[in-house]
Amino acid sequence: MSDHVDVLIIGAGLSGIGAAHHIQSAFPRRKYAILEAREAIGGTWDLFRYPGVRSDSDMHTLGYRFKPWTQAEAIADGPSILKYVRETAADAGIDKHIRFGHKVVGASWSSSDARWTVDAVHNGLTVRLTAGFLYVCTGYYHYDAGYQPDFPVIEQFGGTVVHPQHWPENLDYVGKKVVVIGSGATAVTLVPALAEQAEHVTMVQRSPTYILALPAKDVIANSLRRLIGPRRAYSIVRWKNVLMATLIYQLSQRRPKVIKAMIRKAAAKQLPPGYEVDVHFKPRYNPWDQRLCLVPDGDLFTAIRRRKASVVTDRIQEFTPSGLRLESGAQLDADIVVTATGLRLLALGGMRLTVDGHDVKLPETMAYKGMMLSGVPNFVFTVGYTNASWTLKADLVSEFTVRLLGHLDANGYTQCVPVNDDPRVTEQPLLDFDAGYVRRSIDEFPRAGSRQPWQMGMSYAHDVVKLRHGRIDDGVMRFTALR
C-alpha cells in the first residue's frame, strides 16, 4: 500500500466501513486506506462480547442505507450485526484497504502542502502516512476500559467481578447467583441472557430506566420483503421506522406525561400481578432525557415473571465477602457481580491534532453540521444520533463528505475549512443528553453552537435536507487552492 492516500479513514467499525463504501463508490480512482487500532473489523460489535449483546435500535435503521437488512429479526444480536458489517467490507473489497493494529496517535495538517501527516503505532513502532483528507470514524467510546465507580471495599468480595466491556471468554455462570449493577441498555440485555442458565439474576439499580418492549421481528418488513423484494421493502421500512421513532421522540419532548403513561402501562401488563411498577420502572426524568432501553419480545419482563430475575432499586453500601450490602440494610448474595455501570467516552480515539504547528484543543473548536471542526481543514468525524440509530447519521455524514470532495474536484480546490466568525453564535454542549457517560466527559469534546450550521442536529429528516441536499458553498465553509 502507498504511504500517501487521497482519503484516510480512521476506524474499521460500522461507521468506517460505511464511509469507505461511500468513498469507493463515488470515487473509484481515489486512493484510500483505513487504519484500525484493533486486529479485526467491527469496532463496537467486535469489542462487546457479553451474553445477549444486541442492538438497541432496529436493523432497518442501524443498517446501511445501501445494504438492505434481510434477516427476520429487526432487533439483532451482536454476532449477526458483526457478520453484516464484515460482509459489507468483503463484498466491496474494502477489507483489502484496512491496515490492522495501527493505532493513530497524532495527525498534523500543513496548509502549504494541503495534506495531513498521520502517525500510528504498529507493533511498537511509529508508522507515518500522508493524506489529502482525514475521515475519523472512531466513535466516542473508550475501548481500553469502561466506567466503574469506586465501590466501597470491593476487594472483600470473594466471588468474581466482571465489567461487560471485558467479558471473560470462559466465565461460568451456570447455576450461579449473579448480581448485575446498572439499569441501562447493557444491564437490561445481560439480565435475561444470564437468567437462561444462572440460578438467579438480580439487577441492582439506583433509579429506574424507561424500558420498552418491541417485537424482535418486524412483521411489516418481513411481509413487504416477500411482496416487493428486499431493496424496496428496506427503503419503505427504514422510513416507517424513522417516522415512528421521530413521533415518539417528539411526543416525549412535548407531551411527556402521555409517553410516561404509555410506557408504564405496557410494562405493567408484562409484569406479575401486584408488582411494584412505580418503584422499579418509573424513572424520575422524562422519556428521552436519556435513551430508551428496548427489550425484544419483552425478554426482561419474561425473566421476571418466571422468577429467574428480579430488580432491586436501592444504593450499594458496600461489598461483603459473599455479595453486597445495600443502604436499606438488605444483603444480596452473589457468586458473580457484573458492573454494568457505563462507558467512558474518548474524543477522536484520543489522537492529537495540530494545524500548521498549533495544537487543536477540541473544547475550543465548534462542530460544523456535527461533523467538521472549526479551523481544522479537510477533516470530518462521525458522531451518530443519541435519539435514533447511529448509522442514520453516519450515512448522511458520508454522503455530505462525498459531495464536499466532489465540490473540491469540480472547482480545483485543495482545502476546505469551516470558519466560525459569527458573533451571534454562542457555545453549547455537543450532545444535549443527560446520560451519565455523556455528563462525565462532554467537556473534553468540541462544542456545538446556538445557530446553524453549528448546531448538532438530532433530526434525521432535517439532516437529510441539510446534508444530502443543502448547499456546500454556504459562506461558512471556506475553500482555497494550493498555489
UniProtKB/TrEMBL annotation:
Name the record gives this protein: Cation diffusion facilitator CzcD-associated flavoprotein CzcO
Pfam families in UniProt: FMO-like (PF00743), NAD_binding_8 (PF13450)
Similarity field: Belongs to the FAD-binding monooxygenase family.
Superkingdom of this protein's organism: Bacteria
The protein's required cofactors: FAD
Alphabetical UniProt keywords: FAD, Flavoprotein, Monooxygenase, Oxidoreductase
SUPFAM superfamilies assigned: FAD/NAD(P)-binding domain
